[in-house]
Design goal:
Length: 443
């Protein structure tokens, strides 16, 4: 059977995907697993799909890596991460077991009552996973409410520190505040609770998909707090990042009072990072889609982004492997490769760009977008978005494909990305400067 392939953006190979999982550069290849429901283009019992790339540009899907086989993951193999040790690939994930099952739909859990355990599976080559005999429960479901919640404790991210392995898991406190659980291990098998960390003020009622890592400019914490943005629109859960201090010996976190959205289009969620082959910190996130494309597939990932911290600001820049693909100058989007095209321009105060019905303009030193005309039927979602005030100029690099537009402002000072439907091919501009259009080199 031929494997499905993607370029630039990794997409659902049919049916449904959400969170990226197990993102790692392993034995000369990038492995990216993802939450996958293989039976319909809607959320259901979670499996792990698997895709591989040599360059973060060309992706090949390798089918299902993990599927439910145990009591603890009977109702889903939920999000997690990957590490390498002694040439082997270790996957860590959350297994879910429903207290009750909806008799009309076994993929749903009445009243959201279930328990979550943290699990592990090991592979010698990164492709073969013994789902029946290779799984191990490393942290059973937490039953002490004073420590954490038996239901909302999930998404283990593992890394190696100075002298031990560390794991951070997203959870919630007894009084409904998001918290992090830190565990420590010497052998990747036996784990001990090292600390519990939360903010004194409520910052979402649960913290999903935590990712804590070092950059040259300092530590960065990425979270997806649930219930952080309550404005009456469809999504209340959003991916954020902030500079933090982290003490490995005590697993304590010094939180910043300021935070940024990872992406100001507010479609991106549950991002995960890894180290690329050249030592850069690179991040990929799930782009939430309110409806399936052509009724066949739902869910895709953003362009891989390099994460950098300068002082207290977090930058997300286009990964060089992606950037160097757009070298063929064209005159119109009609001439573009089927994968899409890139626009390069400076957008000054009061100017506007219309990309096939998707409008980008600058107002009061913010980059603003309006997708009303290419998002019909989804007015319960946010259609008008904007960045904070920008400080470093007015340069835009805009990556356009049929269902996603990603705007990188001042080389990653902020990013604003939006899912779109029925995007037109025409361009309309109100610019005082020039506009350059590039597509993928056809060599």
């Amino acid at each position: 059977m031929d494997m499905k392939t993607d370029r630039i953006h990794l997409k659902a190979p049919g049916n449904w995907i959400n969170d990226p999982n197990g993102f790692i550069y392993y034995k000369g290849m990038y492995h990216l697993f993802y939450q996958y429901f293989p039976y319909a283009p809607q959320w259901g019992t979670m499996h792990w799909g698997h895709a591989v790339s040599r360059d973060l540009v060309n992706w090949e899907h390798y089918g299902i890596a993990l599927f439910p086989t145990k009591y603890e993951d009977q109702n889903g193999c939920f999000s997690g991460s990957a590490v390498e040790n002694d040439g082997k690939l270790y996957l860590y994930y959350t297994g879910v077991h429903y207290d009750e099952i909806d008799s009309d739909n076994i993929h749903k859990c009445p009243e959201n009552k279930f328990e979550s355990a943290q699990m592990m599976i090991c592979s010698k080559d990164g492709f073969s996973f013994d789902n029946f005999n290779g799984k191990k429960v490393i942290i059973p479901a937490v039953m002490d409410k004073k420590i954490a919640d038996r239901t909302h404790t999930r998404d283990p991210k593992v890394w190696h520190g100075k002298d031990a392995w560390y794991m951070v898991i997203g959870s919630k406190t007894e009084d409904d505040r998001g918290q992090l659980l830190f565990y420590r291990s010497k052998d990747l098998m036996e784990w001990e609770l090292a600390n519990r960390v939360s903010k004194e003020t409520t910052f979402g009622w649960m913290w999903e998909c935590p990712d804590l890592f070092k950059t040259e400019g300092g530590n960065v914490l990425v979270l997806s707090p649930m219930g952080i943005l309550k404005d009456g629109k469809r999504e209340e859960n959003h991916a954020v990042c902030m500079p933090v201090g982290f003490d490995e010996d005590t697993c304590t976190v010094e939180f910043s009072e300021n935070f940024q959205f990872v992406d100001y289009g507010l479609d991106l969620y549950a991002p995960q990072s890894t180290i690329d082959e050249d030592g850069r910190r690179v991040l990929i996130g799930w782009m939430r889609m309110p409806e399936a494309v052509d009724g066949n597939w739902n869910g895709m990932f953003c362009i891989p982004r390099v994460v950098e911290r300068k002082n207290t600001h977090i930058y997300f820049r286009v990964h060089p492997s992606i950037e160097q693909m757009y070298t063929c100058r064209i005159n119109s989007p009609i001439e573009a490769d089927e994968v899409g095209y890139k626009l390069v321009l400076d957008l000054k105060e009061g100017e506007m760009l219309d990309i096939g019905g998707y409008k980008i303009y600058r107002k009061e030193n913010r980059i603003c977008t309006d997708r009303t005309d290419v998002f019909a039927g989804h007015m319960d979602c946010r259609v008008k978005l904007e960045t904070p005030e920008i400080n470093e100029g007015y340069h835009l690099d805009i990556y356009v494909e049929k269902n996603l537009i990603e705007i990188f402002i001042n080389n990653g000072e902020y990013v604003l990305s939006n899912v779109v439907y029925n995007l037109g091919e025409e361009l309309y501009t109100e610019l005082s400067g020039g506009l350059q259009i590039y597509t993928l080199d056809k060599k």
